[in-house]
Amino acid sequence: MRMEKLIEKFIGYDCKVSLGKEFAYFPAKKVITFTYNEPIEANTEWKKFLKETFNFNLTNENLFSMSVLHELGHHYTEKLFSNEEWIEQTSGKYFENLDGSELYQTYYNMPIEKIATEWAVMVYNANLLDMRAWNHRFNCALRHWQKLRKKKTSFLTKF
User: Fold this and answer.
1) What sign does the CA torsion over 8, 48, 44, 114 have?
2) Which candidate, 90, 78, 68, places its Cα nearest to that of 17?
3) CB contact at 8 A, 156 and 38
């Protein structure tokens, strides 16, 4: 099964899914994009943010699932913010003079990002048995992708 279909099955067909350059949610089109690679630094910083903010342990095993749930969280929480707030928070002006850990932590603490992550953590924790099964499915699909393309995916790299 193609990863797009697997993700759509996971999220209940609430949004369209397509391969992109990063994990993202596009509210106007109701589209979630995913990638097979994320910067290791971003994963490490998100792990730190999740532990400190939500006491959630992000691991290599649940990284992909949580990334998808986070983007789906945007879908379910987007109405909490006006269009102007979305535009302001996604414009990049918050990050102009930041880099490294400070850049990532500022990004993760923006209201639209933080509430989507909170939603993802809540859903994950409320469905632990199902999430274990989905983590396994996604990791098998990622290994298959890696084997076919003879490329490494950052989601299967310990961080």
Assistant:
1) positive
2) 68
3) no
